[in-house]
Every structure is written in structure tokens, then in C-alpha cells.
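Bumping my old thread because nobody answered last time. Still need a sequence for this structure:
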């Protein structure tokens, strides 16, 4: 049997062409897009489409959606999902409630090949890239499960988004479409471990989307020990590219910094970090490391008090910094933990 085409993975423009291929007017594509992006699971729900078209769609198309394999609810309103796809791959998404609205952290790949030592997601390597539709499905399904609207997106779950740039780009365009979820580019943050060649392209393509860099250390020696990507793209080059980014887009970069006891939290580390970032349009987000047992206990979380001290020291040196509130502490909030447990 011919494989059915997954409509959740199609842009409005692609659906217009598809509608014409089925002998319909192009505007039917826009109607289908609206239905699919509003979370419709069946063609029978698409009541403004002619019955004949709905029957045709049933024959040749499907609306792919993952299954909820596991759901963990935290007391603070955070909900962590393990979603499973038809091919057996599973990924995580985390829904979070903030004062300013609801946010979701989505995964961009099943697994990850970056191998950061502090991360549970990378432990199994990369299984495959997710499609744009599979990234969007995480939002639609989380909305359906929680009964809440998502207003902010962070692409910071499993995977390196810049290692799946084509699908990431499609996802950003689709999720921003006013006939779809209509989430503003400024309400979206993409986090990278620092794939330098993609940063310039991203600045060009999506100047309004926020960029976060997982920095985690101020020297090549420490950063390479935590993040193998640093061997290929060392700190000096990464920071130079980040400065170019801020000059080009006039957008503030966020540097993520997981505080690890006696590894990156000493006074000398903070001084180096401040020197590195001085004068850049940026902000440092500190968070005590979320320890995972898979890193064999070699990395220990720095205390929240130490993170606050580091933020003060950075501020005094002219670098904006905050300590992030860590949500979902009573569930396995560290990225990748749910997936490892399920395997
Ligand atoms: S921290 Fe991010 S880039 Fe590093 S291994 Fe985990 S998912 Fe990949």
C-alpha cells in the first residue's frame, strides 16, 4: 500500500499545492493547514471541507501524532511528557507555567550526537532527526493533555537543533504562521551547544528568534571536558561568532551556565567568564547542575547560594546574570532522564 502523506509535516504553501494536486482550489490547503495546526486528529472534524475531499484525504493522507508514553506532573504545574513515535523512538517535552504565560521545551532530535557529559539525552547517541511536524506535535499534544495554551517555546529538549537545521527552519516558519499556532518569533528561543557555522545562517533567517548558547565553562580545557563540541568549535571562535550575531541582529544572546561544584564555579572561573563576555549584548542564565546518575557521579551540582554569588560577581563586572528558577524538581526534570528510564 502507498505510504500516506503526513499533513502535520506540511506548510501552508505545500498544502495549497497538495490541494490543487487533488483537483481542489488552493485555498482548501489553507483550510486543511488551519485544522491540522489546531490539533484536529481526524478528517471528519474538518467540517468546512466538502465531504468528497474529506474522503479523498482519508485515502491518501494522515495526521501523524505521537503517543503519550508517560506523563509526570509536578506540584508546581510543570508537566513532563515522554512521547513515542510509530518507529519506536521516544522523546521528551516539558510544559512549564510561568507568570508571563505557558512555555514548552521541545525536542528537535531523537537522541543527540553531541555527547555532553552532564546530559542524559546524549547518552544513547543520535537515533534520528525529528521532522518539523513531529516538533509541532509536541506542542499540540501538550496543549491537548493540559488543556492550556502554549505562548512560549524553547527548543532546548533532546537534540542539537542546529544539527537538524532544515527541519528546525520549517518548524519555526510553521509555528509562527498566523493560520497555525501563531507564536511570535520573539517568544521562541533556540538553544545550541555552539555549532558555529549555523549561527550566522540563523541570524540571517530568523533574526527575531532568541538564541541561547550552552556555554557552561569559561576555558577550552573545562568546556571540552564537559562538551566535546568544544574541540571542534573552541570558545574563542564561538564568542567571536556570538559578538557578530549580536551586532548583526541587535538581539541579546543568553548564555546558559550549569554550575558544577569545583569545576566551573571558582572565583577565577567567574573572572574569566566576565572577561570573555564583557561588552557583549548578552545575559548569563545560571542554574545549579541537574545531576544525572549516568555521568557516574563525577559532576556535582553547585549550590543555589553559589549560583547567586556568581550572578552577583558577574553583575559587578558589568555582565547581566540571573539564577534560573528550576521547575519540576519533584519529577525527573533533567533532560533525557525520562527517556533513559523508559528504555
Ligand atoms: S546537552 Fe543538548 S547538545 Fe548536549 S548532549 Fe544533551 S541534548 Fe545534546
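Sorry it took so long. Here it is:
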Amino acid at each position: 500500500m502507498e505510504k500516506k502523506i503526513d499533513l502535520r509535516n506540511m506548510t501552508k504553501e505545500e498544502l495549497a499545492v497538495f490541494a490543487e494536486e487533488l483537483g481542489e482550489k488552493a485555498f482548501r490547503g489553507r483550510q486543511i493547514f488551519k485544522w491540522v495546526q489546531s490539533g484536529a486528529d481526524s478528517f471528519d472534524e474538518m467540517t468546512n471541507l466538502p465531504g468528497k475531499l474529506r474522503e479523498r484525504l482519508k485515502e491518501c493522507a494522515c495526521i501523524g501524532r505521537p503517543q503519550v508514553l508517560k506523563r509526570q506532573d509536578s506540584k508546581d504545574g510543570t508537566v513532563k511528557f515522554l512521547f513515542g513515535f510509530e518507529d519506536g523512538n521516544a522523546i521528551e517535552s516539558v510544559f512549564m507555567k510561568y507568570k508571563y504565560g505557558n512555555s514548552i521545551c521541545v525536542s528537535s532530535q531523537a537522541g543527540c550526537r553531541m555527547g555532553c557529559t552532564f546530559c542524559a539525552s546524549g547518552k544513547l547517541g543520535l537515533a534520528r532527526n525529528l521532522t518539523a511536524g513531529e516538533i509541532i506535535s509536541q506542542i499540540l499534544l501538550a496543549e491537548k493533555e493540559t488543556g492550556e495554551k502554549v505562548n512560549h517555546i524553547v527548543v532546548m529538549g533532546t537534540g542539537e537543533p542546529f544539527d537538524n537545521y532544515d527541519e528546525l527552519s520549517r518548524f519555526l516558519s510553521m509555528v509562527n504562521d498566523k493560520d497555525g499556532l501563531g507564536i511570535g518569533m520573539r517568544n521562541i528561543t533556540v538553544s545550541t551547544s555552539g555549532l558555529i557555522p549555523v549561527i550566522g545562517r540563523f541570524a540571517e533567517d530568523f533574526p527575531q528568534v532568541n538564541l541561547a548558547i550552552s556555554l557552561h565553562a569559561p576555558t577550552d580545557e573545562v568546556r571540552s571536558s564537559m562538551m566535546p563540541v568544544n574541540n571542534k568549535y573552541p570558545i574563542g571562535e564561538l564568542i567571536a561568532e556570538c559578538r557578530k550575531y549580536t551586532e548583526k541582529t541587535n538581539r541579546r544572546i543568553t548564555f546558559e551556565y550549569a554550575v558544577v561544584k569545583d569545576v566551573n564555579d571558582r572565583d577565577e572561573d567567574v573572572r574569566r567568564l566576565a572577561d570573555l563576555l564583557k561588552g557583549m549584548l548578552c545575559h548569563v542564565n545560571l542554574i545549579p547542575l541537574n545531576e544525572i546518575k549516568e555521568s557516574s557521579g563525577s559532576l556535582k551540582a553547585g549550590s543555589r547560594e553559589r549560583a547567586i554569588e556568581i550572578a552577583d560577581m558577574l553583575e559587578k563586572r558589568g555582565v547581566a546574570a540571573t539564577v534560573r528558577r528550576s521547575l519540576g524538581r519533584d519529577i525527573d526534570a533533567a533532560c533525557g532522564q525520562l527517556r533513559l528510564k523508559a528504555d
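The first strand starts at residue 5 and ends at 6. Let me know if any region looks off to you.
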